[in-house]
Every structure is written in C-alpha cells, then in structure tokens.
Amino acid sequence: MQRKPYTVKASEVVPQWHVLDARDKPLGRLSSEIAMLLMGKNKPTYLPNQNTGDYVVVVNAGQIKVTGNKLAQMKYYRHSGYPGGLRERNLEQVLEKDPTRVLHDAVRGMLPKNYLARKMLARLKLELGESADKYTSQIVGAQRAAEKAALAPVEAKPAKKKASPRKKAEEQPEAEIKLAKPRAAKAAEMKKAPAAKAKTGTKAEPKAAVEAGSKTQVKPKVKAVAKPKAIAKSKPKAKAKAQKADKNEEA
Predict the structure, then answer these.
(1) Per-residue pLDDT for 1 more than 80?
(2) Has residue 42 been placed in a domain?
(3) Contacts of 2 (CB under 8 A, 6+ apart)
C-alpha cells in the first residue's frame, strides 16, 4: 500500500529573511542565487504550486559587476506604442539612470512565468545603500518564528487502515451478524413472488385491511351512472314549414 506524500500547507510555511551584498558580484550568479531563495528551492518543502520562498534584501544593488564588454553590448529596449517609438539603451546608460532595474529584470527572467512570480518578486527588496536597518524588525520576527517552529515540529498523521469485513464479523456477537444476500438471490425471489400469486388466483388484500383484520371492511367502488342525453327540441320555424306543406297537399 502506497502512502500519500506529506505536503506542506500554506499556513505552515514560515518565510525567512536573507540579506545579500551585491558589491563586485557578477550579475548572473547573484540573480540566480536570489531566484533560488525567492522560489524556495533551497528547502525540502519546495512545491511548484505554492509560494514557499523567502524574503531577500539586496544592499549595494547598483554596484554589480559584469565581465567583458557587456556595458556597451547589452541592450535594453522599450516602445512608446506609436510608430517609430522604439527606444534603445545599453547597460551603462541604464545603470546611471536606474541602477536597481538591471538586477530586478535579471531576477524576473529567472522566475516561473505565472501568477506566483509576481508574489515572489514582491519579496525582493533592493537597496542602493549599505544598510538594511528598516527591515530589522521583520528579520528578528522571522528568526523567532523559525525557532518556535523548530521546537514544535509538525508531525505527519499516519494513514488510517480500513478494517476487513472478516474482523468486523469476529468482533460482533453472532446475534447481531446480518449477512447481506447477493443480488442474484434477491432477483430470483422477486421473480418467484408474482408467479406464486398467479397460481393461487387470489388477489392481494390491501395493507389497511390486513393490518386492521376483520373489523375494517374495504368500501366497494361506486360505478358512475351515465346521464341521459338531452332531447333535441324542434325549432318553431321548421314546424311552421311542415304545417304549410300539409295544407298544400290537402288542397
């Protein structure tokens, strides 16, 4: 018998907080590490249909490192929606205008393309400075919640085994045991019942008369008497015409 694997409920998931420093770190390696933490693939309780990831705070988000000539070769595009509205910028220009956009777009491309990605991406906090002091309360609260969860781990309930019908019959006394007849035997009895009634030629008495006995009598059915048809009355005009015809014949 195969046991059903234990799956973590959304209420049992306790997200943690991670603080990463992006100074002089390669863009691809850092974004892949962040994506793994956001999806929760570093945990044994990972589920693809649930948001089991953690919060990630990245400090010095604008001081990433790229190799080769990527500052000039990497292009970022946007379109205004009008003809000829395509705008193009390289990586160096984007870092000057919006430093956090580069890391944000790189992590978004590594997350799954579904509604969970939006929830995961909302847990990414990008900071240009070196400190993450405004998230200290959340970090401390997550650590305390993790300690409580470790002290009281969730135990999986064992699967209940169904008792066999033989064991149930042995546990019950002999007077209470009622064996169900098979369908074939019931069908044979139903066929025999109308055949026995036809041989005797007696009609089955109603239930009310059988229960009450000889005290009650079944009332006979009253036959409906047909009403006499109304005699059609002759019209006065037809009588006058008949009298005139008689007089003419006598004359």
Answers:
(1) no
(2) yes
(3) none
Residues 119, 96: Cα–Cα separation, whole Å = 28
Which DSSP symbol is given to 127?
-
Rounded Cα distance, 18 and 3, in Å: 35
DSSP secondary structure letters along 101-118: HHHHHHHHHHS-SSHHHH
Instruction: Judge whether 43 lies within some domain.
Output: yes
| Whether pTM exceeds 0.90 | no
> Are 55 and 15 spatial neighbours (Cβ–Cβ below 8 Å)?
yes
Would residue 117 count as lying in a domain? yes
Integer Cα distance of 117 and 33 in angstroms: 15
Instruction: Mention every residue, 6+ apart, whose C-beta is less than 8 A from residue 52.
Output: 8, 13, 39, 40, 43, 45, 46
Q: What is the CATH number of the domain that holds 52?
A: 3.90.1180.10
Residue-number span of the structural domain to which 18 is assigned: 11-64+100-140
Q: What pLDDT shows up at residue 11?
A: 81
- Reference 58, options 102, 92, 89; nearest CA is 102
Burial of 61 (0-12, 13-18, 19+ CB in 10 A): buried
Contact by Cβ (8 Å): 124, 56: yes
Residue of higher predicted confidence among 36 and 198: 36
Specify the number of domains making up the chain: 1
State the distance between the two ends of the chain, measured CA to CA, in whole angstroms: 119
Q: What Rg do the C-alpha atoms of the chain give, in angstroms?
A: 47
